[in-house]
Amino acid sequence: MQITILPASSKTAQATIRSLLSTPTNTNLHIRGLYRDPTRAPPEFTSHPAFHATHGDIRDANTLDLAGTDALFVMTPPRHDVDDIFQWAREASENTRAAIERSSVRRVVLLSSMGAEFESGTGEIRTNHIAEEILQDAAPEVVIVRAAYFMENWAGGVSSVKDQENPYFESVITPLEYEVPMVAIKDIGSACAAHLLTPTLPESPYIFELHGPKPYSVLDVQRAFKDATGKDVAVRPVEKQDLPAFFGQFLPPALVGPFVEMTVGFLPGGVMAQGNPDAEKRVQRGRTGLGDVIGGFFEGSA
Ligand SMILES: NC(=O)c1ccc[n+]([C@@H]2O[C@H](COP(=O)([O-])OP(=O)(O)OC[C@H]3O[C@@H](n4cnc5c(N)ncnc54)[C@H](OP(=O)(O)O)[C@@H]3O)[C@@H](O)[C@H]2O)c1
To answer: Taking every annotated instance into account, which residue ranges of this chain make up the domain NAD(P)-binding (predicted)?
Structure first.
């Protein structure tokens, strides 16, 4: 069986490859990772006889060779260098679809996001809505994994938690006791690997949300930082009206609006906070807890 990973360099793709390579039953498994620059494939993968890195740039459909692929992992790479991220999502998905149509891919596993079912009001998450629309019938079997907020997003707080005399982290999730689903990237990799390999699916497209073992609030994040460092860690909430200035500190101007709308969209009163009425029937849960992910940020540090 041949599984192709596009693009193979993303964090979720790496977790998927790691999970596939550790699957004991698949002696006939071949994994092709498509990279803009294959020399960036890590030795952890290239040293494995079942893994091969090859060139593939989602900007150019002609470089996406899916010949021999049985199952394809695909996600929409975020780009901060374009003025219109939605046009990029359309282009990336159409290039991917064109490559699928030239080949005999039987199954596509698309990494998407919670909230991708909504057409508007979701900001950056609309890139996933666009990808779902274009790819949902691109192969006989399509799996759409709508992942929750990545627990690893909290890595952005590590430097201020570590380096300051008064350790703190900033949170765009308010109020602080508001609970949201969060999932570890490792569990996204396991879920995607499992759905690339499973012999049968209930339907196509097969859509589910992927959450962690339980929802978490920012107070849980604060507790996890405290447990990991042994220090009292403060939270600096970023209120809704301050979101444009907050995102403007580190995002290009064209992305500030989509990130503000995405954030407001999942806070109380937002379009995504209403939840998907079907979601409860379709939630799968990872096993990794928030404390394990945040603790991992500090492994090996003094
Ligand atoms: N963060 C969240 O809470 C969250 C939640 C749900 C869903 N999501 C979705 O998850 C996705 C992000 O996943 P991630 O964090 O795993 O991504 P990521 O680590 O940011 O990886 C993106 C990768 O895409 C590669 N890339 C960029 N342009 C490319 C091109 N033209 N051709 C081939 N490769 C290209 C880059 O690799 P090189 O530079 O090495 O080429 C980069 O490593 C997004 O679609 C996002 O909407 C995120």
So the answer is: 8-166
